[in-house]
Automatic annotation (TrEMBL):
<feature type="signal peptide">
    <location>
        <begin position="1"/>
        <end position="25"/>
    </location>
</feature>
<dbReference type="InterPro" id="IPR037045">
    <property type="entry name" value="S8pro/Inhibitor_I9_sf"/>
</dbReference>
<dbReference type="Pfam" id="PF05922">
    <property type="entry name" value="Inhibitor_I9"/>
</dbReference>
<dbReference type="InterPro" id="IPR010259">
    <property type="entry name" value="S8pro/Inhibitor_I9"/>
</dbReference>
<protein>
    <submittedName>
        <fullName>Pectinesterase</fullName>
    </submittedName>
</protein>
<keyword id="KW-0732">Signal</keyword>
<feature type="domain" description="Inhibitor I9">
    <location>
        <begin position="53"/>
        <end position="128"/>
    </location>
</feature>
Length: 135
């Protein structure tokens, strides 16, 4: 039974990494195609030493996933506005969780929150460098 759960979790993590990579690739493609459109405003720094982390949570029962993710993040950052500034993406389909820019202290604090299952640093994996240049 534990082996099945481990395999399912591994599959979910791999699927989530693939979704992140596809989303980042789509953003790069979109920005290169529309160079004449205004650039999006970068999110403000949350604090010194902040880095993007993926926070896996239990699936919320009585509220929308993004509202639950913002509430969880606000409990650590102190306000809903700070949570909105730090939130990068809310995952709702294959897994429940969100990505946010957090300091090491905030990572330690959010890890203790009810409903938070796991907090991991976000990584970008490059699968290949372009057509014909597979690695």
């Amino acid at each position: 039974m534990n082996r099945k759960i481990s395999l399912v979790l591994l599959f979910l993590i791999i699927a989530l990494c693939c979704l992140i990579e596809m989303a980042e690739s789509a953003d790069v493609t979109k920005s290169s195609l529309s160079s004449s459109s205004p650039k999006p405003k970068p999110k403000p720094e949350v604090g010194a030493g902040a880095a993007v982390h993926i926070i896996y949570t239990e699936k919320p029962q009585d509220e929308q996933p993004e509202a639950y993710h913002l509430r969880t993040l606000a409990s650590v950052l102190g306000s809903e506005e700070a949570a909105k500034d730090a939130l990068i993406y809310s995952y709702k389909t294959a897994a429940s969780g969100f990505s946010a820019k957090l300091t090491p202290e905030q990572v330690a604090e959010i890890s203790k929150q009810p409903g938070v299952l796991q907090v991991i640093p976000s990584r970008t994996l490059q699968l290949h460098s372009g057509p014909g240049n597979l690695h």
